[in-house]
Amino acid sequence: MDMNTQNDSNGDGDGWAGGDAADWAALYVLGALSGDELALCERRLANDAAFRSEVEKLRPTANALSLAAAPVEPPSGLFERVRARAGLVSGADEIARDVQPWKQWRTEKSAREFDYLAADVREFTPTAVPGISVRKLFVDADADRVTMLVRMRAGASYPGHRHAGPEECYVLAGDIRVGPDLHMRAGDYQRADVGSVHPVQSTDGGCLLLITSSLNDELLVLG
User: Fold this and answer.
1) Pairing status of strand 145-152 against strand 197-198
2) How many CB atoms within 10 Å of residue 37?
3) Has this prediction a pTM greater than 0.85?
4) What is the pLDDT of residues 58-90, one digit of tens each?
């Protein structure tokens, strides 16, 4: 659900499910919102009497908490739960989506025993990282696996990331540096286990990689 586009009874285009208003009011009075979420709640505060009433009911409790000897955090998972219901995408999520476009790829069902993909059937897709593009070979979303070609132009660098599943990398052509200590060349292979962290990877002269990995690796370094 996208609370920025769903219509509500006020007709202002900033609706959310009725059961979520109390959650958003709690986050607002606790000062746990920022950016788009904070702006949305402030608009609702100005235009929605029911939401204003919810906020005013919670203010005394929030003020009392602010005077407590120890800071009081919102209930565990509250913010994540509200954001998941609302369908919000944070700035970091948007960056990850552009840097890792394979996270948007979907499984292609096939009744055939063998799948064949000719070299000229599917083009490379540019990523948000200058000089890096990817070509989809196969995706199994249920198994959280993707097989793809990664092409890096000379001088390109890919951000550090944590592996949500095993990653296998075979260098088909060129070279790739993995952090300061490992320099892989054509024919070299590396496997990274789940939970492991790759530092920034870069290439001197450009490379073509065959990669199998999770669809849910976490970016750690951007830029």
Assistant:
1) unpaired
2) 20
3) no
4) 887 766 665 554 555 666 556 655 555 554 444
